[in-house]
Amino acid sequence: MYKIVSRKPLNTTVTQMEIEAPLVAKKAKPGQFIILRVDEEGERIPLTVAGTNPEKGTVKIIFQIVGGTTEKLNHKKEGDYLQDFVGPLGVATHTEGIKKVCIVGGGVGCAIAMPVAQEFHRLGAEVTSIIGFRNKDIVILEDEFKACSDKLYVMTDDGSYGRHGNVTVPLKEMLENGETFDEIITIGPLIMMKFVVATAKPYNIPVTVSMNPIMIDGTGMCGGCRLTLTQDGKRVTKFACVDGPDFNGYEVDFDEAMSRNRMYMDFERHAYEEACNLFKEAK
Amino acid sequence: MAIVPKKNPMPTQAPEVRAHNFQEVALGYTAEIAMEEAARCLNCKNQPCVGGCPVNIHIPEFISQVKVGNFEEAYQIINKTSSLPAVCGRVCPQESQCESKCTLGIRFEPVGIGRLERFVADYHNEHATAKPEAPEFNGHKVAIVGSGPSGLTCAGDLAKKGYKVAVFEALHTAGGVLVYGIPEFRLPKKIVAKEVETLKALGVDVDTNVVIGKTLTIDELFDMGYEAVFVGSGAGLPRFMNIPGEALKGVYSANEFLTRSNLMKSYLDNPVTPIMKGGNVAVVGGGNVAMDAARTALRLGAENVYIVYRRSMEELPARKEEVEHAKEEGIDFRLLNNPVEILGYNNPDDPRDPKNGFVTGIKCVKMELGEPDASGRRRPVEVPGSEFVLDVDTVIMAIGTSPNPLIKNTTKGLEVNSHGGIIVNEDGLTSREAVYAGGDAVTGAATVISAMGAGKLAAKSIDEYLSKK
Known about the structure:
The complex is a heterodimer. Chain A is of the alpha/beta class. Helices cover 30% and strands 32% of the residues of chain A. In chain A, the strands form three sheets. Chain A has a seven-stranded antiparallel β-sheet with strand order 6-1-2-5-4-3-7. In chain B, helix 4 runs antiparallel to helix 5 (71-79), helix 5 (71-79) packs across helix 7 and helix 8 (149-160) packs parallel to helix 17. In chain B, 53% of the residues are buried. Chain B is an alpha/beta fold.
């Protein structure tokens, strides 16, 4: 069992927790993920590591309530325990040789982008961050990004906070004005990452995307997280859990990935409603 | 006394009943049937059956005890060489091992050794009250990577000798393929749990949620004071055919489909982990895993389940009893058929149509058998122009698995072959000092019993190595 040492809501649907998991805390690097189960009969869900404290032996996770399992997780309190917590899984974000980086995060993806931005900042790279949200109410981690970015753009879709528009707006402006980066790293909804790739393409800047497919074991065993890349004109299958979650954005078949992520949409909606009803009844 | 030519049949749930539930298919011999079956054993002096068993169970000895009703004594005889009899009695391919060597089998049906083994193990599990005790600690610590059949066997053998053993398991439940792969109706999970409990009573630590190669490395295990490591990490990496359409929704690896159903319990009425249920299902492949996937799909409510296999019934590698059971349950064998493409729904007028991207069918080509290939089996060749489409909603790829590269990639100096299997010598020792390996991690996908044999061998080698230290 793994203790929840702290719990803090970041907005109405996004929560941050620190979990006691010393072995994971010692090993996890930015870009890697963990898999947890809330309770005995629970589902396994992957969540990217949002930070670690090796001395305290804790791992920070930030999650958005999107289904039955995250709804249940959100109802856990400080001092409660999680059934299972395993990691770190996946390959850490590649940082070597990158002196100037642009981090583009969207929504809860910013939680994953944050430790990556912090790592580059720590390594002395010049960090430009663009973080985007639907509206003012769900803006998260602005201060954290401010602290580790040389330049920060906060965007909202409806203009209720920061600048109006989506994350590709300032990216495009910068690139058009001759700004260049060793690499652009983008983490967020698939559709957003797809457009970040399209925006960067004319400028030939490498783009790393962080994929978040459906997975079970996280060790390469089920193949449920497979995605298709085009490498040297050939379509190849990769497993996000062991080959990723970071991939070369120019190679990823985003349309296929978006379709695959919708496989259990009806099931998930139903499970979410059920979990919500359960907690309502309990009250 | 006249020889009874046929084996006593195994009592089973009726096919039409069991096709709709996940309870065990084979119900097991009663004491009376077991004693009757044991009486068929000729008790040959040269004991050919023992040589056919990868862990050399003293078969005629235990059967002699069953014959006279001394079931616990029979168990103790099996227990000397096998650590998981309740498992092996259920999942071993006896027809190609012990029973294939049975003298009686030359003219008649061989003795039902596997069925007797299962009976004895079940009898013990039901009646035994004494818990095994942890022997005195001999001062040596050994780490086992993976809690599948090879790891559990190796752990058990070493623990009985006084070693302090820790088993590291990546998943949240111990048992490896016995819990994620083999379905409940063939191997009830409480049997596996019982075997794991027995090991714990012997003093073995079972650490779930530890991925060796990620959470800890082999080198760190040595730093932690373990003096030898056994790698039994299995062959977990699923293979796909690399045909068009494998990324469509509704295409599973057998590993994923079975893991969802078995480990994550998607077979329950109101599961937490989703799985596609019902419709028509094609399972590609002809091994035990294919049979397990097909029969699981049927129990999950599929209307039609096809086994699509490119060779003929004669080459079908699955355990005979499973094939028989599958046929009785109504699995439709489409032999000498090879998939060439998986077809999906695509509404060109509405990209948001929720049906888009789901499987609608599998295009196959008919095959005929040509000349024998390297494996000695006749090579299937395509019949030109024979393409046809099977209408299905789900496709399950059960065409094999490869060893997981996680450990190889994080352990310096650990050599593997071209298939990714860890290279070991005749003692189970790898290219790294004090690192042993066995089971599917070495051989690629094989059987539970051969993995157990490898675990046993490694335990013996580790004991010899550490006793000299």
